[in-house]
Amino acid sequence: MHKYQLIGPFAQILPMTHLHLKGAISDEALLIIEDGGILIENDKIHALGKFTEMLPTAKDLGAKITTLDGKDVCLPGFVDAHTHICFGGTRANDYAMRNAGKSYLEIAKSGGGIWDTVTQTRKASQTQLINLIIQRANRHLENGITTIEVKSGYGLSVKEELKMLYAIKEANQKLPADLIATCLAAHMVPKDYSGTSSDYLKEISTELFPKLKEEELCNRIDAFIEESAYTKDDIAPYFTKAKAMGFDITVHADQFSTSGSAVAIAFDAVSADHLEASTSKEIEALAKSNVIATALPGASLGLGCAFTPARELLDAGGALAIASDWNPGSAPMGDLLTQAAILGTFQKLSNAEVLAGITFRAALALNLKDRGKMEVGYLADLVTFPIHDYKEILYQQGSLKPNRVWKKGNLIMD
Ligand code: NIG
Ligand code: FE
């Protein structure tokens, strides 16, 4: 590969630079570059500007020049900051039951729900899980998503959680996309565990946490805070231990009832995700904190529930990321762009707010400061759409697909 490459011209480049982490953003704040070019040095952004003005420098540097027809829009590669794509089986029955009027909790109590996926994921071999992750991640990659968070949480024992996290690590090595692993051993209290929920969490934190560090399996600890899973009292010693060991904290918060977001704030989590049940009180507290609020419209669509109050959060000065929550239960669709566009429609979000939610704000929800913008020195993760006006992307609500994707300067889809 050439050390330098210049790509362009593009009808529009949306560099997403100069935008703030927190608060509302108008489309006028996007500093769009027309007829632009992108100069890449190895895997990173080296310079942006007008393509024709960049040509002489690029030639001096011996850059490989990729000349396009000037009819595409280019954005930073998308980031999906919350998925559960390591799972076996399907929960199509849950979906049918739900649509027939049964509630999420009723379905869980009658043998469906998360535990059903735990059973099916435990039956899958590590190799089968690797292949399933690769299939799903490649679908995401074709949709322009170059960084994908992936949670464990369908193993629910030290051994089975490790199997999932090894599968995520190995899939990551085989894929161009970056997979960011998260340990969600605190997804629900395992039905086959003989001790109390506190005993289980203690076992995970003493036996699994050190292994996560030793084998570099993940640097993030998540928990589902809800009556049907873990209470804030259950989780306090678990998160205290995780923080002391240097893990980042993230929380499944305020999905059906409030309390999780307060825990996220108390533990200075990188993100609080879901928030469909948050009231103004929780939204204001989140907006004042450093915690990124991640809306998961795919779960609202999968469950037929309200959307996260994203507009209120941004107006209160909060940081909003948008993620797919792709999982077999509550969010089977797994189409981030469609979901983000729909959230924008229902919550009255600007194009800039939605796009920020799936680029740099999502990257920061994963504590990644090297992507999601075309800042000099940031990763050359890029996605292009075959249109001349960026507003078409969300307008077409996910039906317009990318025509090219670059990951770390490598063209991986054309
Ligand atoms: O993020 N809320 C808890 N966990 C997942 C659902 C997982 C499942 O139903 O399998 C979520 O929606
Ligand atoms: Fe989730």
Descriptive overview:
With 414 residues, the protein is an alpha/beta fold. It has 2 domains: 4-76 and 372-413, Roll (Urease, subunit C, domain 1), CATH 2.30.40.10; 79-365, Metal-dependent hydrolases (TIM Barrel, Alpha-Beta Barrel). Helices cover 38% and strands 21% of the residues. It contains 16 helices and 16 strands. It has helices spanning 51-60, 92-99, 104-109, 114-123, 126-142, 158-174, 197-214, 232-244, 260-266, 280-288, 297-303, 310-315, 336-347, 351-357, 360-365, 391-395; strands at residues 4-13, 33-41, 44-50, 64-67, 73-76, 78-80, 145-151, 178-186, 220-224, 248-253, 271-274, 292-295, 320-322, 382-385, 404-407, 410-413. Strands 1, 2, 3, 4, 5, 14, 15 and 16 form an 8-stranded mixed β-sheet that branches. It has an 8-stranded parallel β-sheet with strand order 6-7-8-9-10-11-12-13. Helix 5 (126-142) crosses helix 6 (158-174) and helix 13 packs across helix 14. It is globular. The structure holds N-(iminomethyl)-L-glutamic acid (NIG) and fe (iii) ion. The site of fe (iii) ion (FE) has 5 residues, from loops. GO terms for molecular function: imidazolonepropionase activity. Residues 123-386 form the Amidohydrolase domain. Keywords: Cytoplasm, Histidine metabolism, Hydrolase, Iron, Metal-binding, Zinc. Its EC number is 3.5.2.7.
